[in-house]
Amino acid sequence: MYEGKTKIVEDLGDEVLLHFKDDITAGDGAKHDVLENKGSICAEVTARLMKMLSEKGVYNMFLEFVPPKKIRARKLKMLPLEVIVRFKKAGSFVRRYGGTEGEDLPQPLVEFTYKSDALHDPLMCVEHLEVLGITSREVAKKVMDEAVKTATILKEFFQGHGYELWDIKFEYGLDKDGNVCLGDEISPDTMRLRKSGEIFDKDVYRRDLGDPMERYKVVLELCRSISL
Question: In terms of CB atoms within 10 Å, which of 27, 69, 103, 140 comes out highest?
Answer without folding.
Answer: 140
